[in-house]
Amino acid sequence: MRYLVLATDYDGTLASHGNVSADVIESLKSVCSSGRKLVLITGRHLPDLMSAFPQFEIFDLIVAENGALLYRPKTKEEKLLCNPPDVRFTKRLQELGVNASVGRAIVSTWEPHQDAVLQAIRELGLDMQVIFNKGAVMVLPAGINKATGLDAALKEFALSSHNVVGVGDAENDHSFLAKCECSVAVANALDSIKENSDVVTTSNHGAGVKELIEQLIENDLQRYDARLKRHAIPLGILGDGSETPVTVNAYRNSVLVAGPSASGKSTAVSGILESLAEHRYQFCLLDPEGDFENFAGALTLGGTNERPDPRTVLRALDSPDQSVVVNLLGVPFADRPEFCAALLSQLQELRSRTARPHWLIFDEAHHLLPAEWSQASGNIPQALENILLITVHPDHVSPAILKDVDVLMVTGKSPLETLEAFARVVQIEAPTGENIDLEKGEALIWFAHENKAPIRVRTIPGAAERRRHLRKYAEGEMGPELSFYFRGPESKLNLRANNLNAFVQLADGIDDETWMHHLKRGEYTRWFKEVIKDDDLAQVAAESEEDDAVSPEESRKRIKQAIEKRYTAPA
Prior knowledge:
Number of strands: 25
Radius of gyration: 26 Å
Helix content: 25-40%
Number of domains: 4
CATH superfamily of the largest domain: P-loop containing nucleotide triphosphate hydrolases
Low-confidence stretches: 464-469
CATH architecture of the largest domain: 3-Layer(aba) Sandwich
Strand order of the largest sheet: 14-13-23-22-21-15-20-19-16-18-17
Strand content: 15-25%
Shape: globular
Mean pLDDT: 90
Distance between the termini: 26 Å
CATH class of the largest domain: Alpha Beta
Largest sheet: 11 strands, mixed
């Protein structure tokens, strides 16, 4: 299964007017019966939720108070994920006449009390954030939101956010929906939530969640795979001047990279590995020759004089964020296929529980998965998905493995001959065309089960340092002194964007006056230039600043598209 966790908001999503219907509750139970986990993520205080929703125990975990509190219904354990409210703050709110409710960490009130809330925060010099949600005003320690709460829940399960489908409806759901592999908005959701979600249900509230659950259980949401372009893995770039990436789905694709030695095969594979690491997909790479032992995005186990221990490999993979390179130089050449078979069996068992490692990668696949192997012999599991095979001789790889390959990437001279060799083994029709010789840095990509000709591309070389910086600015935690603050013309707001993803999300939600205030003061340009250190992005912002006729909507669109293209697009 791709999706092992369903994470849902409560008010406005699961519940309508605070209530969840009986048929929706039965639908939630079917998620549990399918072997998946249920996580409820709500801005409510826990006692309030329990009173409104007595069936809360059907959830495996509850993230309450907008990400500040983790609750385990089965054991009734609570875990506070941040510091409790500062008593000076709640006392000052009382003095200002603000009627606020105080939870374990959250302080909640309603509009129009946000001005008094911000006044109290400024006066006391507190590092707190204000979150708006359909008229509600929620105050939490900086950096605490539904996304951090979801992270804490997934840590309890040792599962990855890549195996989560999330559903919500309002402003405070932006953060956790962006974290999920598949983000879903119910039909009654705010427009900004719909625009940023992968899927929008046709039904409102709980009926929309029920609709989603039915599709989840029917086929693991396969119908939406093509929509998840933000997770696509680029294999190469079209050479027609368009700079269009040719990508594969992060799930339900298996790839064969083939070509002679010194043809650029390893360079192409390094680019794919870096993309997997950048997207935080966990992989386990079996490396017979030690070619990938210094790959920066993974832990290398084994070496020339050290036989890798499968138990150590599996322990390392317990952490969803840890990829592993298994160096087989310490395993005698003749023993490597047997070692591979034994480890593969254990990796498949791990996958059945956690859907990880997301990708299994076999270098020199013709040695590790030889042609004489078959599923009947017990060497190969019945279902082997999300694999990347690297080989000089595809016709020397087990046909039982090759039958699941649906994407081929070929480098070097006479690439059509390589495709023909593959087609003979799996007994499909080979592509036709002129058998060109590819230059180094080029590849031919063929989607074997589509009636299309192979595509000539420019491969994507590794660029580890550049990609690490992109990830830091897009997703990392930039300190308060480096963050951007949306405050507005009278400093009524104090919304902190600690990275570019947060900047885009907050920009979608703030009012036009606040957006244009910062635009016309040149503050976006300065932040992009001085903090993000991206002159091109700063130029995009500067062009909008200098355009007297530009609307708030158009300027937002320009800057958002520039950020997504440079930092969060697949290529």
